[in-house]
Specification:
Blueprint: H1 29-57, E1 61-62, E2 69-70, E3 78-80, E4 87-89, H2 100-105, H3 135-158, H4 160-170, H5 180-185
Antiparallel strand pairs: 1-2, 3-4
Length: 203
C-alpha cells in the first residue's frame, strides 16, 4: 500500500505497477487477468532480480575487499575504496598492493602480459583496434562487455525458457540496449592482440 493514507494505491513489489482495487467480491475479467499477471510477477521475482543485478552491476565494479561497487571516472584504472581504503584495479577487479612501486607495477608491460592491466583504457587501442582512443568511449565499451558477460552468466544459470519468460513478462531484455544475439554470441574478449608479435593472449 502507498504510505499516504489518502492514496490507498496498492502496487506490485516486483513490477512496481498498480494492482487493481477490487470494489466487490465479483471482479471483472480484466481485474482477474491483471491480478493473475501480478501473481506471475511474484513467481518470477527472484529470477528477475538476478537479471536486474546483471544490468546494474555491469555498469560498475565491486571492491574486492568489502564489495562496495563503484564506477570509474575518466581518469586511470586505479581505484581506492572509500569504505575500506583498499586499492584495486577497475579493469580486472583485483586488489593492488599498497605502495607506489607495487601499485604501478600492476600496469607494467600490460600490452604483452595478460596478468597486467592498462593504466588508461584508451591505451588498449594501441594493441586492439576494436577499442576507441578516448577514455569516455572506452568506458562505455568496457561496461557493455562487462554487462554482456553477466547477462550470459544469468542465461546459463536460468536457461533459455526462463529468460524468455522474464522478457515476455517484463520486457527486461527487449527494453535494454542488448540483443539476444549479443548476449549469446558477442566476443567478450577485453583485449585481443592485433599486432604481428601476438605477445598478449586474449583476456
Amino acid at each position: 500500500y502507498c504510505e499516504r493514507p489518502q492514496c490507498g494505491v496498492v502496487s506490485c513489489l516486483t513490477c512496481r505497477k498498480a494492482c487493481p482495487r477490487l470494489k466487490n467480491d465479483y471482479p471483472t475479467d480484466e481485474e482477474l487477468a491483471e491480478m493473475e499477471r501480478h501473481f506471475i510477477c511474484a513467481e518470477l521475482a527472484d529470477d528477475k532480480q538476478i537479471v536486474d543485478d546483471c544490468l546494474e552491476l555491469g555498469q560498475k565494479v565491486p571492491c574486492p575487499q568489502c564489495g562496495l561497487a563503484g564506477r570509474k571516472d575518466h581518469a586511470c584504472t586505479h581505484m581506492a575504496c572509500p569504505t575500506c581504503a583498499q586499492l584495486w584495479c577497475y579493469f580486472c577487479g583485483k586488489k593492488v598492493e599498497d605502495g607506489t612501486d607495487e601499485k604501478y607495477a600492476h600496469n607494467v608491460d600490460w600490452n604483452c602480459n595478460p596478468n597486467r592491466c592498462p593504466m588508461y583504457l584508451r591505451q588498449i587501442a594501441d594493441v586492439d583496434d576494436r577499442w576507441p582512443d578516448n577514455e569516455e568511449d572506452c568506458l562505455v565499451r568496457f561496461h557493455r562487455i562487462r554487462t554482456l558477460g553477466l547477462l550470459r552468466e544469468a542465461f546459463d544459470k536460468l536457461g533459455q525458457n526462463r529468460m524468455d519468460e522474464l522478457d515476455r513478462h517484463f520486457n527486461i531484455i527487449s527494453s535494454s540496449d542488448f540483443t539476444w544475439d549479443e548476449i549469446l554470441h558477442e566476443d567478450l574478449t577485453l583485449i585481443r592482440c592485433t599486432d604481428s608479435s601476438g605477445t598478449r593472449c586474449g583476456s
